[in-house]
Structure formats: structure tokens, C-alpha cells
Design goal:
This protein has 253 residues and is α/β, with parallel strands linked by helices. The chain has a single domain (13-31, 42-212), classed as HUPs (Rossmann fold, 3-Layer(aba) Sandwich). Helices cover 34% and strands 11% of the residues. The chain is built from 8 helices and 6 strands; from the N terminus they run ααβαβαβαααβββα. The chain has a 6-stranded mixed beta sheet with strand order 3-2-1-4-6-5. The longest helix is centred in the middle third of the chain and has 16 residues, at 137-152. The radius of gyration is 18 Å and the shape is globular.
């Protein structure tokens, strides 16, 4: 890893905007026609991670991970050992997801940070009605995911996500690097061009922790009450909030 030579204090918004513009320009693969990867040069995901390692101090870098798999934390930790991995501890996760988190802690050179909502599940039930996820899933996601993450990201200048363009129509045009207008930091999606098969193949080839639910028909894993198996041929995210018109928790909108 190249040791960052930049200052360790937080940048202001305009500095981060300029860094995002520079990153998009330097990581020119993002702008290549029809989404093709250049014949020469470093792979998108490696180049994006290297760019972050060289331009941001480690203390200001975060990786978001749902613990469906550990590919993104593993890729980032290869170049930025000890990086913070943010896990949204909603209180509604599958046991398999919690088990995957523990495996990531044990196997990878990362610092897993549990990002907690302000209310426990019991407190939320008392204040907003039992099982809010079934009556108002958007409000539940906001309180247990969106708002806690927004607060946690205030401590960082850049965050990595595992967003892929093949996941859903809302992510088709996801960029490799951009300024996140919601959180006012730089957002990097190193695996944006990866397919689910490529992700699975990489995970298997490198012996990385993987959520066993992925091999049981759960191609996109969220909270247990709001996630079902996906039928063959369905969109990978069709199992999220099934039966509603909701397709995103709100983090990446």
C-alpha cells in the first residue's frame, strides 16, 4: 500500500467535491464507451481502491458492508489494512448474517464497527407500533439504517460501497466514484461492474467468508422480516420488501 501523504484532518465539502472530480477523471475507465473496460491498465476495483489509499488518510475511510459476502472488505483491506467496516446493526438480521460478521472480524484485517439505531427494537415497537417494518417499511429503514449511517459517516471523508449495476434498475448508472450529495463525502463503488457470478467466483477462489443464505436463494440479503428467497430469473433484489413498491432502503438514493 502507498502511504498517504495527505493531512489527517477532515476536508471541507469543496475539497471533497474536487477530489471526487479528480478521481472520476483519473479513473478514466468509468467514462469508457458502452461500459467497456480498457484493454490496458489496472482493473477498475483495484485502481479505485489504490486511488483512495493514496489520497485519503486511513482514519477518514469507511467500508459499508451488509455481510452478504466479504469481497469488498477483503479487497479494500488488501491495500488499506485495518480499515473501518461499518455494519448497520438493525436488530432484525438473520443469524447467518451475524455469523458472517463474526467470520469477517476473525478472518480479515479490518475493524468492524456496529452502527446502532437510536432506538432498540423494543423501544421502536413501543413508540411507533409493533413490527413497523410491516406497516411503514420506509420509516423503519430510515430509523434503523439511513439515519444511523448518516450519523456514522460524519466521521469520514470517503466511503466504499458494494453497489453493482446488475442489482436493480435503480443502480444501472451507478458511478465508480462520485461526490455523495446526501452525506457530503466521496462515495466509491469499486465493484460497480461486477456481476453476481463474478462476486461469487472471487469469494470462492479466495476462501472468503460468505453468508450461507446466498446459496439458499437469498440473492440480496437485508433484514429477516423484509427478505425472501428469489425465484429463478427474478431480479436479485426482488426478494427485498416483497409485495410492496419499495426497492431501496434509502441509503443509495
Amino acid at each position: 500500500m502507498t502511504t498517504p501523504t495527505v493531512e489527517t484532518t477532515a476536508r471541507n465539502e469543496e475539497q471533497l467535491r474536487e477530489l471526487a472530480r479528480t478521481g472520476a477523471r483519473e479513473l478514466g475507465a468509468e467514462l469508457s464507451p458502452e461500459g467497456t473496460v480498457p484493454e490496458q491498465g489496472e482493473a477498475d476495483h483495484l485502481a479505485a481502491i489504490r486511488w483512495v489509499a493514496e489520497n485519503f488518510p486511513q482514519a477518514r475511510i469507511a467500508v459499508a458492508c451488509s455481510m452478504a459476502d466479504a469481497v469488498l472488505p477483503a479487497l479494500v483491506a488488501d491495500q488499506i489494512p485495518g480499515v473501518d467496516v461499518l455494519f448497520l446493526e438493525t436488530g432484525y438480521h438473520f443469524p447467518e448474517t451475524e455469523g458472517t460478521k463474526e467470520a469477517v472480524k476473525f478472518m480479515l484485517d479490518v475493524n468492524v464497527v456496529d452502527v446502532m439505531p437510536k432506538l432498540s427494537v423494543a423501544e421502536q415497537d413501543e413508540q411507533h407500533g409493533k413490527d413497523l417494518f410491516s406497516t411503514d417499511p420506509t420509516a423503519c429503514c430510515r430509523m434503523r439504517k439511513v439515519e444511523p449511517l448518516a450519523e456514522a459517516l460524519q466521521d469520514y471523508d470517503v466511503w466504499f460501497t458494494g453497489v453493482r449495476r446488475d442489482e436493480s434498475p435503480t443502480r444501472t448508472n451507478a458511478p465508480l466514484v462520485a461526490f455523495d450529495e446526501t452525506h457530503k463525502i466521496v462515495k466509491v463503488n469499486p465493484m460497480v461492474r461486477w456481476s453476481l457470478d463474478e462476486l461469487t467466483d472471487y469469494s470462492n477462489a479466495h476462501g472468503l467468508p460468505v453468508n450461507p443464505l446466498l446459496s439458499d436463494g437469498f440473492l440480496s440479503i437485508g433484514c429477516a422480516p423484509c427478505t425472501r428467497r428469489v425465484a429463478p430469473g427474478e431480479d436479485p433484489r426482488a426478494g427485498r420488501w416483497s409485495g410492496t413498491d419499495k426497492i431501496e432502503c434509502g441509503i443509495h438514493l
